[in-house]
Amino acid sequence: MKIFETIEEMGHEQVLFCHGQNPNIKAIIAIHDTGLGPAMGATRMLPYVNEAAALKDVLRLSRGMTYKAACANIPVGGGKAVIIANPEEKSDELFEAYGRFIESLNGRFITGQDVNITPQDVCTIRRQTSHVVGTSEKSGGPAPITAKGVLLGIKAAVNFRLQNQGLDGLKVAVQGLGNVGGNLCKYLHEHGVDLYVTDVSSEKAELVASLYGAKVVAPDEIYGLDVDVFAPCALGGILNSDTIPLIKAPIVAGAANNQLESEQLHSQALKSKGILYCPDYVINGGGLINVYNEMIGYDETKAFQQLNNIYDTLLEIFAIAQSAEITTYEASRHLAQERINKAKSLKTKE
Ligand code: NAD
Questions:
Q1: Residue from 250, 234, 136 nearest 185 by CA
Q2: Which of 89, 173, 202, 349 is most exposed by smallest CB count within 10 Å?
Q3: Distance from the CA of 176 to the center of ligand 1, in angstroms?
Q4: Residue 70 in domain
């Protein structure tokens, strides 16, 4: 990979390669854009097949964080970090060394937990730097607020696509009944929605069926249901050339990260089928809103006010997509870039 060519094309400000021998550490911190504020992004630990794969992951994810924060109207920029290691190689020394690298950035990068990083690991990193988030229990974790954000997103999509103000009597299919999906089912049930659900865990599916009267279907049946909304809340990559032809719902709106297997190809495939897709990083922005509010001193009222932005931002994205005849995915990128450019031009004038 031609590194400077790639980061120029993707718009990264800085990429820090962190290396140490005692303890042995290899990590990459990517700062995509600090136009709106310090770069924020969680750290993941994975034994990548090679260094190029780690670099590709961190560059893509950090850019995604920039757009996510801009769409959530949160004054932070986009960043991400990867520690190239097997989680079995975890040690206090490794996380402390990693913490010193974060501290060297003097607040330009703020991190938290992602794949294979536990709250305990974040506490170890915190011994060397204060630029970490997500160890506080004040908000009760990000899943309930993420689910509330998804509910707002579904309302916006139903309003735009079905010209329906409420959700009462609508049919929604939820894939994945974990922390977010389970909470989402609760909120949808409170709004009078008929639920169709699936999970690879039959225990979770039965629980949601008994709590909210949901109808349980097999995991591969969830795509083809005759419902108003399909809400993916399990895995990434589930909107692909195999599943999109099966989808009958006019709206796809769910919490899962990286739902589109190929962002360009599959967002276009959804548009061609007349399906309104809520870009995942916009509709699931509640998690970031939660972390940001923990950072500035958690205030539930403020956090929920910010969450309402998800509804308005999605309506704006749908309108841009419709008038410019582009996908909602492209429209979300345009909107995010516009907000970042505006913030930068205001800063230059100051
Ligand atoms: P989770 O692990 O608690 O739940 C995921 C659920 O999906 C599990 O119950 C699992 O059994 C089920 N599942 C896995 N494979 C499945 C399949 N093939 N078919 C049906 N069900 C399947 O995770 P979560 O915290 O609820 O997050 C769900 C998604 O939302 C993830 O993609 C996550 O990255 C994203 N997300 C979560 C948050 C948050 O606040 N937790 C924030 C933003 C985005």
A1: 234
A2: 349
A3: 6
A4: no
Tens digit of each residue's pLDDT (9 = 90 or more) over 230-244: 999 998 899 999 999
Q: pTM, whole model, 2 decimals?
A: 0.90
Treating both helix axes as pointing N-terminal to C-terminal, what angle do 300-307 and 309-324 enclose, rounded to 10 degrees?
A: 10
What residue numbers bound the domain in which 281 lies?
A: 142-338
- Catalytic: 80? yes
Instruction: Answer yes or no: do 151 and 223 share one domain.
Output: yes
DSSP 29-50: EEEEE-SSSSEE--EEEE--SS
Point out the ligand 1 atom lying closest to the alpha carbon of residue 143.
Answer: 40
Within a 13 Å sphere around the CA of 171, how many CA atoms are in the beta-carbon half?
A: 12
Rounded to a whole number of angstroms, the CA Rg of the chain reads 20
Q: Among 80, 148, 155, 204, which one carries the catalytic annotation? A: 80
Q: Bridge-partner residues for 276, per DSSP?
A: 251
Residue 160's CATH number: 3.40.50.720
Q: Does the structure show a pLDDT above 90 at 297?
A: no
What are the beta bridge partners of residue 118?
none
Evaluate if residue 139 carries a pLDDT over 80. Answer: no
Any residues with Cβ below 6 Å from ligand 1, and which? Answer: 142-143, 146, 175-181, 198-201, 204, 219, 233-236, 255-257, 284, 287
